[in-house]
């Protein structure tokens, strides 16, 4: 059996001359938080099939959802084939056009939303009955534009847009806040970014492309959240949020790549225009999957 002692393997690459690439992905593993559907959930499983001690080789297999960690959704995740222009925009994860997965884009600073949320949460001492309705924040187009203007950013046609709400700091630390209270999108912002701005990619530091309350019927999809909303407002969530993930469908029918659970190094590039990329793997059966969402200074290569 051949071995390679490390003193026989020299490093000739000079990393100091290389372009810095910022990783906007969250780490994931066996304790990765998963979207909190009702009922039992199975954690991600990583059994070993081969062992270094026996085979001088290590091989892992994976069992679990493809919608975990930083991942991209495919149109077949939420749309019937008849609802999609398959040739133009793709349908399965393998069919997403790679040209859509890289380009110029902006990382928008909306981290003040996390600070505002914390003020409201602390004032209510975490009691839904004492929370204001706007603790569940829906990002509107005018608010998004104000955040862009603050840093001198503008959305150009075929841009990528990444929104930093600051909620990635709850990832693995407080998954209740992360999944049930993240500031997110409704159809107003999705229509604005597709029809008016004509973007090609959207990502955010949120648990899903749609805000938590846009998961109708909420009393079936997230019954604990439905109870919290009713306790806070005395209202039926289905009346104000009468659709299931409308932003998912709006973006995907327009051929826009959608990425959930952004994070990682995002604070280092927030407020900037960068080159952004995230490529799907070529699985014909997948309705989404893991991506490495990355950014680097434009013109570096």
Can you put this structure into words, describing what you see?
By secondary structure, the protein is an alpha/beta fold. The chain has one domain: Putative cyclase (Glucose Oxidase, domain 1, 3-Layer(bba) Sandwich), CATH 3.50.30.50. It has helices spanning 52-55, 86-89, 112-124, 141-150, 175-180, 187-196, 218-221, 223-233, 237-240, 246-253, 266-269; strands at 22-23, 48-50, 59-60, 71-73, 102-109, 138-139, 160-164, 184-185, 201-204, 257-260, 273-277, 288-290, 294-296. The chain has a 9-stranded mixed sheet. A two-stranded antiparallel ribbon has the order 2-3. Helix 6 runs parallel beside helix 10.
What strand order characterises the main sheet?
Answer: 1-13-11-5-7-9-10-4-12
What integer value in Å does the Rg equal?
Answer: 21 Å
From the 3D structure, determine the CATH topology. Answer: Glucose Oxidase, domain 1
User: What is the CATH architecture annotation?
Assistant: 3-Layer(bba) Sandwich
The global form is globular
Hey, roughly how much beta strand do the residues contain?
15-25%
Instruction: Return the structural class.
Output: alpha/beta
- H/E order of the elements? EEHEEHEHEHEHEHEHHHHEHEEE
CATH class: Alpha Beta
Which residues form runs of ≥5 with pLDDT under 50?
Answer: none
Write out the CATH superfamily name.
Putative cyclase
Number of strands: 13
Count of domain modules? 1
Distance between the termini: 41 Å
The averaged pLDDT comes out at 95
Helical content (DSSP H or I, runs of 4+): 25-40%
How large is the count of helical segments? 11
Biggest sheet statistics = 9 strands, mixed
